[in-house]
TrEMBL record:
PANTHER family: ENDONUCLEASE/EXONUCLEASE/PHOSPHATASE FAMILY DOMAIN-CONTAINING PROTEIN 1 (PTHR21180), ENDONUCLEASE_EXONUCLEASE_PHOSPHATASE FAMILY DOMAIN-CONTAINING PROTEIN 1 (PTHR21180:SF32). GO terms for cellular component: type II protein secretion system complex. This is Helix-hairpin-helix domain-containing protein. Transmembrane segments: none annotated. It comes from Oryzomonas rubra. InterPro entries: Endo/Exo/Phosphatase_dom_1 (IPR051675), Hlx-hairpin-Hlx_DNA-bd_motif (IPR003583), RuvA_2-like (IPR010994). Residues 131-150, 161-180 form the Helix-hairpin-helix DNA-binding motif class domain.
């Protein structure tokens, strides 16, 4: 009977200690993640071993993102001047081309609207083309063209609320698409 009492005692102790251990492990994982808060995503492509999307932290600069993607050849410098230390923005893309002399030419490009929507990155109404607007739910090529024309006729930029002034966009359609911006 003493043997059964020990087994029961061990089972009770395990039942009490396992949840405490799991909670401690989760707290440690959460603390580690808190040190690296993700502010969005950037894409790195071109002459890199691992092209793709990378998490954007508060102070991520161009050179750091390129290093994460591993350049195919050693880099001596980046062009244009100041590109290496430039802070990246959510939804931005970097295309790297490495020359024979080791210079890395960097081009900054916004991600297409379809990718931004997929990643939950807000769209910029003032940089979108008709094809980008066409990807929004309830907006076809005709209304997309009207949005671009409205923007061009009103100084080349517009506020989100101005979509209501575009023919074919009523309250219901506006409410459906405004969450993407």
């Amino acid at each position: 009977m003493v043997r059964y009492e020990r087994i029961i005692l061990l089972l009770v102790a395990a039942a009490l200690l396992i949840p405490a251990g799991i909670k401690t492990r989760q707290s440690a994982q959460n603390a580690a993640l808190a040190g690296f808060s993700v502010k969005g995503f950037v894409r790195v492509e071109g002459d890199v071993a691992h092209p793709g999307m990378y998490p954007l932290s508060a102070n991520l600069v161009t050179l750091s993102a390129i290093k994460m993607a591993e350049p195919l050849r050693p880099l001596k410098r980046l062009a244009p001047a100041g590109a290496a230390g430039r802070r990246l923005k959510n939804g931005e893309g970097i295309r790297l081309t490495i020359r024979e002399d080791g210079q890395g030419d960097v081009i900054f490009i916004p991600l297409p609207a379809s990718e931004r929507m997929l990643m939950g990155i807000p769209l910029d109404i003032n940089t979108m083309g008709a094809a980008d607007f066409d990807r929004l739910p309830g907006i076809g090529p005709l209304i997309a063209g009207r949005i671009v024309t409205y923007r061009q006729n009103n100084g080349g930029s517009m506020a989100l609320e101005e979509l209501l002034k575009v023919e074919g966009i009523g309250e219901k359609r506006y409410e459906t698409i405004k969450r993407y911006f």
